[in-house]
Write a structure and sequence with these properties.
Layout lengths: L2 H79 L22
Length: 103
């Protein structure tokens, strides 16, 4: 084989290696961008989980207050149904209105 043929084969091999390295760099660059995006999504998910935790605590607190209010209402209803007040509705009754005067 002549020197020119050897140089041609070596240059072709080097060109293929360089092209492969450029391809590898582009794949790694795309992988880096994907990982950065994934990292941002993970941070956003953590913030969302924290916000959901606070929301759940607030809902549980409101549910407990609502249940207590509902229980008080049931006690008021039971107290009104068992009372001996005639003409009244229990602890919450409205005053009677005066009759309109005749013209």
């Amino acid at each position: 084989m002549s020197d020119g043929a050897v140089l041609t084969v070596v240059s072709l091999v080097l060109a293929v290696i360089i092209a492969g390295l450029f391809r590898l760099v582009s794949v790694l660059d795309a992988a880096e961008m994907t990982l950065r995006r994934l990292g941002g999504d993970v941070r956003a998910a953590r913030k969302a989980v924290d916000a959901v935790g606070q929301l759940v605590a607030s809902v549980e607190r409101d549910a407990a207050e609502g249940q207590a209010a509902f229980d008080r209402l049931e006690q008021i209803k039971r107290g009104a149904a068992g009372s001996d007040n005639e003409g009244g509705t229990g602890p919450v009754s409205l005053p009677l209105r005066p009759r309109p005067s005749a013209p």
